[in-house]
Amino acid sequence: MRLLLGRYLNRTWEVRGKRVREKAEARYLGVELIGGEEGGINSVEENVKKVASVIGMAKFAAKRSGSRFVVGREAWKSLIVSRVMYASGALVWNENVRKNVERMQSEYGRWMWRLERTVRNAAVHGESGWSSFWEREVKAKVAFVVRVLEEDLLVARVGGACLMEIGMRSKWWKKIGKMTEELGVDVLSNLVWLRRMSAIGVAEMGICEDERKRMRKVELERRVQEVGRMRWEEQLQRNERTRRYAQEKREMKLELYADGQDGAGVRLMMRGDCLPVRMNECVRWKYGEDERRCTCGEEETERHVLFECVLYERLREEWLRRWREERGEEDLVEGVLGFAVTSADLERLVLRSVGKIWKERKRREREKDRGQGPGLTFVRE
Ligand SMILES: [Zn+2]
Fold this sequence. Notes:
Blueprint: E1 8-15, E2 18-23, E3 25-28, E4 31-34, E5 40-41, H1 44-65, H2 68-85, H3 95-113, H4 121-128, H5 133-150, H6 154-165, H7 171-183, H8 186-194, H9 199-204, H10 209-214, H11 217-234, H12 240-248, H13 262-271, H14 281-284, H15 302-308, H16 313-327, H17 332-337, H18 344-369
Helix pairs in contact: 1-2, 2-3, 3-4, 5-6, 5-11, 7-8, 13-18, 16-18
Protein name: Reverse transcriptase zinc-binding domain-containing protein
């Protein structure tokens, strides 16, 4: 039987007259087992610790590649997520670890989009088309349970025995029970609570064909996505703008406009109502009453900077003209949010213009910070 593969340690044991050689590490049921005194099952904490350095490398490589956004996003999915998730179906995640990796994902996302810390996580998450680690963990665990339930192969049977062995009150079982309840898949949660892991157990419960279908992996994954979506929408109940974003957002996938450029960042921030202009709720607390003005002297609101401020007039001339031609009196904000369906040319023009305006606004803020007074330099194109 070749279930256990791996390197040998040099230790040899005698068991009932047979010689057994201990292994340094082995993979068993998708779990990495480490031999020796410090051995055991590699925990998710270990996975997470290991990825910290990989994140640095991914960022470095993405920057060097010249397309930080595309390469950075790919590296996140292929290098980092897979390492964190390694064997996670069989492992217990504690809440802190999960929060920690969700935070890592948000931070990485902000780095990819070049956004400030005040930008809402839900917007970065939604526009990057990422799953949360909650979704990923539930999918991995559910797949593990279903595999053990549905398959009658040796590995599944051994898996079943192992799951029983972990003990009824173990954290792992509690977690699985809680997850299946959250998903609202009653049959699966009943099976789990009753530990009916064997084919006979399943048969005894009298599960009908329909219920069996609901327990299939694809169905369960769809359900995980639905619940994940609901959890995401809950984070966006703050105001009218964010609620609208939650509503208008269709699939949780990477948006077509997303290219890591300034304009795309502006749209993302607008959708999440977190463009850090001084009057915006998300950053207003940072500024005193007398600090909430634009360098031109007006109150610095989102509309002021993007549509009205004289400092950026030249940067929006063409955009405004073309917008009026194509969309008449329609609110400019619809174009920036990208909820209005415009011609491809106009769409590009909108993003390019707001990108330039925002870049210029950031430059002025930097100058202000350096104490060079209000940015009275002319706008360069
Ligand atoms: Zn102004």
